[in-house]
Design goal:
The protein is mostly helical. It has a single domain, classed as Farnesyl Diphosphate Synthase (Orthogonal Bundle). A two-stranded antiparallel ribbon has the order 1-2. It is globular. It starts with a helix and ends in a 5-residue tail after the last helix. The relative contact order is 0.12. This is Polyprenyl synthetase family protein. Keywords: Magnesium, Metal-binding, Transferase. It holds the Pfam family polyprenyl_synt.
Amino acid sequence: MQIQDILAVVSEEFQAVDRLIHAQLASRVPLVEKIADYIVSSGGKRIRPLLVLMTAKAFANKEADAVKLATVIEFLHTATLLHDDVVDTSDMRRGNPTANAKWGNAPSVLVGDFLYSRSFEMLVELECLPVMQILAKATSVIAEGEVLQLTNVKNPDTTEQQYMDVIHGKTAMLFEASTWGMASLMNRSDEEREAMRIYGRELGLAFQLIDDVLDYDGDAETMGKNVGDDLAEGKPTLPLIHAMANGSEEQRKLIRSVIRKGGLDDISDVLNIVHELGSIDYTRQKADECIERARAQLAILPDSEARNALDALALLAVKRNQ
């Protein structure tokens, strides 16, 4: 299955999500609507709402609640993107100028707040306390993950476990909330909800691991961002952490120095080191292990096109180049 085949499984529901997204962006403040529409229409893969819809389909649920929850998830994700780009002072995302580059930091932060608020308005309409608890917890974990990443910037002593804690918070938690939240909304069994929670978490971890691989092994035009962006910001991601743990004293000193100062002056040397030491392959292996754990959870689902699509999505997550 390719991504087009996966999307086809929930094409009608996906179109309904798109309609609801644009309906919910309506605001009496024109700039709010303009920025929000810009960011949600900027070509993202919308993996998280897709997970909501496919989870619903896998349990043979066709209720409109799935569309609403998928929209809530996408708004939460979009809000974090607006805030992240301000924090990271990013000027490009998905090949387009970021909202903060076009309109400034203050409007971007405030529109992110608007999307958070609108998502919780819709969440209340679902009238499901377990889902509210999941998403309330998810937003705090995401914020903690972002703060933890911020405290680790330019810190070459960041451990692999600290790195995994960061990517669980900043990325995997919303994947987890997407599948877990939908299973909870349908009042599935504890076993089914836990399986979908783990599936989402492991998929999210793998997704971020591959993102961090592509920062050293990707194509800038395909990704819509610059190769080496993480290095430039002094972010100690897993390829660098592995290289420092396994390189020579000279290699460790170079990487530690690069993390501390940021920038791309030594990117060629760093790229040579992470490839020479197998740090890219190590990170990919970690992503593969996450995907195997994710796929194992799908055994709890009845055999269906949606289950096959969830399995295919997991495999695509580690094979992608953007």
